[in-house]
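Shipment paperwork, digital attachment
Item: protein structure file
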Amino acid sequence: MTADKTETALPRRSARAARASRLAAPPAARPLPPSLAGDRSLPYPAISRELAELRHEIPGVQGCVLGGVDGLLITHNLQNEVDPNDLAALAATTFGLGRQVGMRLDQGDFQQSTVRNQGGYLSVYAVSEQALLAVIGTDTVNVARLHLHAPGVAGRIAALLTPVPTEA
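Attachment content:
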């Protein structure tokens, strides 16, 4: 039996067509904020304490990187041979993908992403418009516990990164 080529295509539902046209046009790109990498005014000792607390609080966490959304390293406390600059760049790449997913699906700003590999995990959390927290863990890390604890650490780091207004 052959298909009749004179048949007309079925009409699409209007909601589906509207969604398809919205997804067809790429959203306007937002510019990245200025980099925090190399900023000597940051409270590095306080940030280091937050990173160390996260590493010590969650068994299996091998270390943390605070990186910019631009992929540049701000600081880290890695306890393995991973290059912190590479991890900061990977965190920014993860952020970029998550940001695009949020924009294209109209789901809002990037919050968190986790990648599971055979030998471990990489979780990336939004800290601020400028910074990301990347946490690398073994395959035995309690990811649920990490997801409960890391956003609080990210929030405290965000507060540390916020400049305190000085009186004129």
